[in-house]
Write a structure and sequence with these properties.
5-stranded mixed beta sheet, 623 residues, 4-stranded antiparallel beta sheet
Length: 623
């Protein structure tokens, strides 16, 4: 990912908001995304003939709204587990003894030890705190006694000082300096080891800079403590050689990072990601502003859609489709990551660089629209008793590939081939999993028919992108019979189906296996009508099939049908299809993996009823 683009966003922010205060970069929201309470220890500063005195006035509770910026006045910044938070403001827990002890022994002393003029005022507060330590402890304890369980886990503690007007920690230059030092220090100091130099070339601007930092990367992709991540790991002091950043660009990177994390991050089928946009013409500030504002709005709308039950399904790909509608005047870096909330170190799960909007258009608009036109997907699924079209989305990719989802997404974006063997391994594994759960657990599981349709849709999608190949030269020849029969099997419908789905059924043996699945579905229906169950299902071994088992299924299914129907020639048209495309081609079974032939069989089994004529008596022969 290009950090120059992040710095460019930071510089744009600085230009847009000339009153931006660098301290705001380092002030954090204690409980982001939720409402919470701030318990304030209230002190009053009184001037008597020029002499200042301090009085403890008890506690007060202020509400902090999740969409408010009022949290800034408390000057909270998370610190280390060992040393505590950076300022007095910290998360409160019950009992509060440890937190109050830290305020007394560490935080107040940090302020009173300074030579800054504000230190004199904090010395007065420290003395009053010590005089009223027991009372303060009782006041805090009383708060917890009346607070709800939720409030007890979402409360912070800070100071409010009345000196002619109410002052908070962020009103004091001393506290602000501590915050600035804390934020800047992390850019050149790592656990006490400093990495900085002077008069060296900045990696962001490629220009000579006076002050260079070594730990200023906006997103920490690695730790200087871990060998193997970067060169020169054995000498942290020289870490600036790996990633030299000037103090000016470090500030821009910080602003860029903050903007991206606030406005350009979201979730794509459960995976957190961020966008880093950059114009093709890098000097175009107007285009950068257009892109960033467009994406900011898109991410905000996507978040709102996720909250709405009616629009939740649209949220997953909303941002990508907005990008897909743009001209190619910018690139996007797309980073999927997980973040250690304590160290802020990012573990990269997958990264795509310099992706054009036209690629998003192909993947999210153009090809899905072509795939969705197949009549097979029209009114294909029923949700809440309403027939609905099945439409392609990357949710299908997620369902089928599971933990390999991001690997497949990367291959799709880059146009790299995907192994057919792996595809069918994942498809049939999902079908088997759902099949087993439907027979062993009392909960809803996705019907195998849905999974089959999704797999066919995914196969078509990947073929359109030329990521998996198919037999483009295959030409299915209609199966015909000398004598037209009005039997159970709809031969014309079967022939038409194969022709419409030759991208999926692209060889004789696949057609034959599919037809065998259709015949077994007919057998299931006959057994269910006669026995109220389907004992032949046990012959399918949980869909773990191979060439030998398929031949066995064929002979035994045919025998069962003939016995039930008392007619040797029952399903003549279907038997003719199977004879031509399966029995005479059985030597080609070995050309398919066991997973692939299992899938084609299940596909026929699940779609078998499509090829049954409507009027049928399963208890007696009609042919």
């Amino acid at each position: 990912m290009q950090d120059k683009a992040i710095a460019q966003i930071g510089h744009w922010q600085l230009a847009q908001n000339r009153d931006l205060d660098p301290v705001d970069l380092y002030i954090e929201n204690m409980f982001p995304g939720k409402d919470y309470q701030m318990l304030l220890l209230v002190f009053e500063i009184i001037s008597d003939n020029g002499e200042l005195t301090c009085a403890y006035k008890g506690i007060d509770i202020e509400k902090v709204k999740k969409d408010s910026s009022s949290y800034r006045k408390y000057a909270y910044r998370k610190g280390s587990a060992r040393g505590g938070d950076v300022t007095i403001t910290t998360k409160l827990s019950n009992p509060a003894d440890t937190k109050l002890q830290n305020i007394k022994e560490a935080q107040l002393k940090k302020l009173t030890a300074s030579k800054h003029p504000d230190a004199q005022l904090f010395k007065l507060i420290e003395s009053e705190f010590l005089r009223n330590e027991a009372l303060i402890s009782l006041d805090v304890e009383s708060y917890f006694g009346s607070a709800s369980k939720e409030e007890q886990t979402s409360t912070g503690i800070s100071l409010r000082i009345n000196k002619e007007r109410d002052l908070y920690l962020n009103d004091f230059e001393l506290v602000r300096n501590i915050l600035l030092d804390s934020g800047s220090e992390k850019k050149y100091d790592h656990n006490g080891t400093q990495s900085r130099t002077n008069n060296s070339v900045c990696s962001v601007t490629s220009e000579l800079a006076e002050d260079i930092y070594g730990f200023a990367a906006p997103f920490k992709y690695s730790s200087p403590d871990k060998p193997g991540f970067i060169s020169g790991f054995f000498n942290k002091e020289k870490f600036w050689r790996n990633y030299p950043v000037s103090s000016k660009e470090a500030l821009a990177l910080e602003y860029g990072k903050k903007y991206i994390k606030q406005h350009l991050t979201g979730y794509f089928y459960g995976h957190e990601f961020l966008f880093v946009p950059h114009p093709i013409i890098r000097s175009s500030h107007n285009e950068l502003e257009m892109i960033v504002e467009l994406l900011k709005d898109a991410f905000a709308i996507a978040r709102e859609k996720k909250i709405s039950k009616e629009e939740r399904s649209e949220a997953e790909e909303y941002i990508q489709k907005i990008v897909a509608g743009q001209e190619n005047y910018f690139y996007l870096d797309m980073l999927f990551y997980s973040e250690d909330k304590k160290t802020e170190a990012i573990s990269i799960e997958m990264m795509l660089e310099e992706v054009l909007p036209s690629r998003f258009n192909k993947l999210f608009i153009e090809v899905p629209e072509r795939v969705n036109r197949n009549p097979l997907f029209k009114n294909a699924i029923v949700i809440k008793k309403v027939e609905q079209d099945l439409k392609f989305s990357f949710g299908i990719v997620s369902d089928i590939f599971g933990d390999k989802f991001l690997d497949i997404v990367q291959r799709i974006f880059l146009g790299k081939p995907i192994s057919k063997a792996f595809l069918f391994e994942r498809v049939i594994a999902l079908i088997r999993k759902n099949y087993n759960e439907s027979h062993t657990q009392d909960k809803w599981t996705e019907p195998a028919g849905w999974t089959v349709l999704k797999a066919i849709m995914l196969i078509n999608y990947l073929q359109e992108l030329k990521i998996i190949d198919n037999n483009n030269t295959y030409n299915y020849m209609d199966t015909t019979t000398v004598e037209k029969k009005s039997g159970r099997f709809n031969l014309d419908g079967f022939n038409q189906f194969i022709k419409e789905n030759e991208s999926f059924l692209d060889s004789d043996i696949k057609v034959g296996i599919f037809a065998l699945g259709v015949m077994v579905r007919f057998l299931f229906d006959i057994q269910h009508a006669n026995l109220s169950n389907t004992p032949f299902e046990n012959k399918l071994r949980g869909y773990k099939l191979n060439p030998e088992l398929l031949m066995q299924v064929y002979t035994e299914a045919l025998d069962k049908i003939q016995k039930y129907q008392k007619n040797f020639y029952v399903y003549g048209d279907l038997r003719e299809v199977i004879s031509h495309y399966f029995v005479t081609k059985k030597q080609e079974l070995v050309s398919l993996s066991n997973n692939e032939l299992s899938f084609y069989f299940v596909a026929g089994l699940e779609m078998g009823r499509k090829f049954k004529n409507e009027k049928e008596d399963n208890n007696q022969a009609t042919e």
